[in-house]
Amino acid sequence: MEETGKKRFAAAGIVAAGIAYFLVCAYPLPKELVLVPLWTRSLSQAPSAPAARKAQTEAPIPFRLGESYGYFTQDGSLLFAAPQGYGVALAADAFAPYDRLSEGFAIESPEGRTLAKVSAVGYPFFASGRRFVLAPDQAGVSELGPGGSVAWTYRFSSPATSFDASPAVAAFGLVDGSIVGLDRSGQAVLDFAPGGSRIAGVYGVAVSPDGLLVAAVTGLDRQRLVVMEKRSTAYRVAYHRYLSSDYRRAIFIGFTADGRLLEFESPSGVGVYDRATRSESVIPVPTAFKLGLAARDGRLLVLLSGEGETRRLVCAELPDRRVLDVEIQAKQAFVEARGDSLFLGVDDDLVRMDLKER
Amino acid sequence: MQVPLRASLLAVVAFGLASTPELAWDWPLAPPRVAATFGTFAKGRVVTGLALASDGAPVRAADDGELSFISEEGISPSGLPSALGSFVVVEQDKGLAVLYSHLAAGSMSSFLRKPRSGDVLGSSGSSGWIEGSGIVFQVFDRLAGSWVNPLLLLPPLTVDKPPVIRSLALSSADKVYVLGAATSLPQGTYTIAADVADPAEPAWGTGSLAPYGIRLSIDGTEAARDRFDVARGTGGKLLLFGQPGVDADELRTKEGRYALAERLFTRGRTSIEVSVEDAEGNKRSSTWTFVVE
């Protein structure tokens, strides 16, 4: 009898412990993240040229989709969609179409105002509110002032292969393996050749939005990731690692808008360097071609991947958890992120989809 | 002006190689039709290579090497436009990197990792910022950090016409005296500038082609000797003629002449001789005599 009472007591204890475990240690399943479509717009319905309108408080979003470029607003107004011609420099506040033998161009606002007429020879390109002109030999750059006049010109030691800019620093990777960082007055604040490889070269360069970090994928045999950090007045190597890659073309590399993470193309996926912890992880997505976007207060990385006519929109949480992976059949694709909203361009259509938890 | 040691050595070696046909590089486009020589002023830049005209002919590797960079015309992942259009960089011996730019879009093979001399790299084209159809062929000396005139490394052109000397001018802050038309001028400090050119017709209408060398003598004493053999981008400027170099932006006068030297001329008779040569050794000289009052 006493033996049976002990068994009953033990069984009751196990049941009670189990109930207590489920009550105390239960871990709620993560909510599923879904994309909720808000609107779709066809580029064929957009005006082919900017129409005069008042500048809005909310900056329109520029897009480049196949042979078209233009602007739209978050609420779905297509300002215009124009054929690209030979080329166009594109930014949120201005654009400048140019010819192959460009000896001058006009800078226009998305609202249709001519902001400046530029007589410099070369191709314009815009980044971080700054406007540049690349020389015809690709080995010189000029920055334009607000009125479109050339503020300064800098000649590189060899042609540029890659570029990125923050409001404070514009960095250029060169064929000869040098990385040159220029401040707003055209003075070199960085001129460094990382070395350490059999063949020197720069295959991608990125500048953090605060201008304190400059990262690059450099060299061949072996290729490496180099991150330089500005300490007092000079940039010093803060992190470097040899990579398994052997890219002989320009690659995708960029910091997220909050500057917390560096993303770069790698054979095993999108490499992610965390600035705070100086650690790396890989999101296993092949052939990513749009990096540097983040949603949900920077907690979610947004990538556009794939090649040919199959593209994939991927949202990932670090270190490597894919929380959303959508296959898209499109010859041309585009993605932009604002907060919890994703703006996707698919061939001739633009779509807004909001990220929601369900 | 001095020529840097490495450039001098390279030039000697290069001339030696180029004059020995079995050791010289091959022309990337044959037969070569020069559209712009090293040092030619074209819109927005000084040519730091050799522009060769061609309509879609195969572009061949000048020597054995290893492809280190390939770029197709279009906006690059970084947002940088492609002023060089479609181009490849091939690494060769002695730290030389060779650029073949403005190839026809889509004509390059990205699988060709180690091209041998004569292998087809692509087709000549007009991608990027180029005035005609062809390629721009550039040689970068990684060790010296400078561009090298490809004519030093390629087989000699069969040219027997020497460069031309069109005029010599002395300019002060407010006046330009073209010698010949002017036989006397007031004493003062003048910039001596010569209008000289390679006699080849520019295939793309880029303007006069630069000769290889210019020598200036004043009253029998050498005052300047410039050779378009190297150029280097340093400190944000493009410097020609080796150390210490001449800023390419200051080499040409407003009238388009080559500024050779600045001199104070005092009262008396003065004689100036200008000699020009091409890379094949063809030379021409002209002398002007004038009176400073």
Structure, described:
The complex is a heterodimer of chains A (358) and B (293). Chain A is mainly beta and 358 residues long. Helix content of chain A is 6%, strand content 53%. In chain A, the strands form nine sheets. Chain A has a four-stranded antiparallel beta sheet, with no helix packed on it. A four-stranded antiparallel beta sheet of chain A has the order 9-10-11-12, with no helix packed on it. Chain A has a four-stranded antiparallel beta sheet with strand order 13-14-15-16, with no helix packed on it. In chain A, a hairpin with a 2-residue loop joins β30 (341-346) and β31. The mean pLDDT of chain A is 91. Chain B is mainly beta. Chain B folds into two domains: 21-152, Distorted Sandwich (Glucose Permease (Domain IIA)), CATH 2.70.70; 164-292, Immunoglobulin-like (Sandwich). Chain B is built from one helix and 23 strands. In chain B, strands 1, 4, 6, 7, 8, 10, 11, 18, 19 and 20 form a ten-stranded antiparallel beta sheet that branches. Chain B is elongated. The chains are: A mainly beta (358), B mainly beta (293). At the A-B interface, β9, β12, β13 and β17 of A face β6, β7 and β18 of B.
Write the SSE topology.
The complex is a heterodimer of chains A (358) and B (293).
Chain A: H1 2-24, E1 33-42, E2 61-65, E3 68-72, E4 78-83, E5 87-90, E6 95-98, E7 105-108, E8 114-118, E9 123-127, E10 130-134, E11 140-144, E12 150-155, E13 160-165, E14 170-174, E15 179-182, E16 188-192, E17 199-207, E18 213-220, E19 224-231, E20 234-242, E21 253-255, E22 261-266, E23 269-274, E24 279-283, E25 290-295, E26 300-307, E27 310-317, E28 321-329, E29 333-338, E30 341-346, E31 349-357
Antiparallel strand pairs in A: 1-31, 2-3, 3-4, 5-6, 7-8, 9-10, 10-11, 11-12, 13-14, 14-15, 15-16, 17-18, 18-19, 19-20, 21-22, 22-23, 23-24, 25-26, 26-27, 27-28, 29-30, 30-31
Chain B: H1 5-19, E1 34-36, E2 41-42, E3 45-46, E4 50-53, E5 58-60, E6 66-71, E7 86-92, E8 96-103, E9 120-123, E10 134-141, E11 146-148, E12 164-171, E13 176-178, E14 184-185, E15 188-197, E16 213-218, E17 221-227, E18 230-234, E19 237-240, E20 246-247, E21 258-265, E22 268-277, E23 283-292
Parallel strand pairs in B: 14-23
Antiparallel strand pairs in B: 1-4, 2-3, 4-10, 5-9, 6-7, 7-8, 8-10, 10-11, 11-18, 12-13, 12-15, 15-21, 16-17, 16-22, 18-19, 19-20, 22-23
